[in-house]
Amino acid sequence: MQAVEFQEPGAPEVLTLIEATDPRPAANEVIIEVAGAGMNFADLLQRRGVYGLKPGAIQRLGLECSGRIVEVGENITAFSAGDTVCALLAGGAYAERVTVDASLVLPAPEGASLLEAGALPEMAATVWSNMVDIGRLRRGDSFLVHGGGGGIGTGAIQIAKALGARVFTTCGSEEKAEFCRSLGADVVINYRESDFVDVVMRETDGAGVDLVLDNMGALYLPRNIEATAVDGRIVMIGVQGGKLAEVDLGAMMEKRMSLHVTSLRDRPLEERARILQGVERDIWPMVADGRVRPIVDRVFPLEDVVGAHEHAESGVQKGKILLSMLP
């Protein structure tokens, strides 16, 4: 089978297509013939050599895929060969076939094509675990997600809107602002033109938002604290703006705030499986009835993985980039 790998960190050109040995399933695994693999920011960081993988982690890129099961391990009863599915992986989705523990596999949702389903697992698991499970977003809450035009942001806007929240988001261009509004965002803030704290406080009559989903880390933390309401929550899922921050604990205490810093890839298998159960229960019905749709910016064939990463590096994408293994 064909798969993508790289020998040393660097620019997109370090990615090469190789002939790899077809995988075999362990007792609790299935083999998926991949239709589509979603690209994530973590893939870019890993390719650059700055992701910080733990010892023993899977080195190949790709955290999510969709496709058809072609073989199941001896202990598997929930799935059979021929089932259309999507899956959350610890790595390796940039390939024609992958093995994955069956607990991390979901039926492909109604309302999306099999290829589009490859753009859903990482987004849905990230949003459900951080916005619904940890963040406790409820109908009537106000919610701010940074980077509304990205793969996580586009999903978070739709899911928060479906849950009945008032949705604020930031983005970097008027084109992306219009796109975020089309997905249901109530207030869109172009961070190149306006300060998001000023806009949030004005639009909430000084109350602030109940929940912030943040991927910027240190750069935005002090202002996120300013923009958060009493008893509000900040859930940090990325550190694109730096890892080291000075925190005003007094300001947080005055608001009885909570700050959660989380990741998905490093969680124990059982925890990731629990998250996917929540996704199937709560998010898949939204996809089926059209309240949430996979947002695919562009599709590249696997052999043009370099072009896909170059496009991702440009920062112009809206939603997910997909690698296609379909003929």
TrEMBL record:
Residue ranges annotated for the Enoyl reductase (ER) domain, each copy included: 10-323
Protein name, as recorded: NAD(P)H-quinone oxidoreductase
Keywords: NADP, Oxidoreductase
Origin: domain of life: Bacteria
Keyword NADP belongs to the record: yes
PANTHER family attached to this UniProt entry: OS02G0805600 PROTEIN, QUINONE OXIDOREDUCTASE PIG3-RELATED
CDD domains assigned to the protein according to its UniProt record, in alphabetical order: p53_inducible_oxidoreductase
Presence of the UniProt keyword Ion transport in the record: no
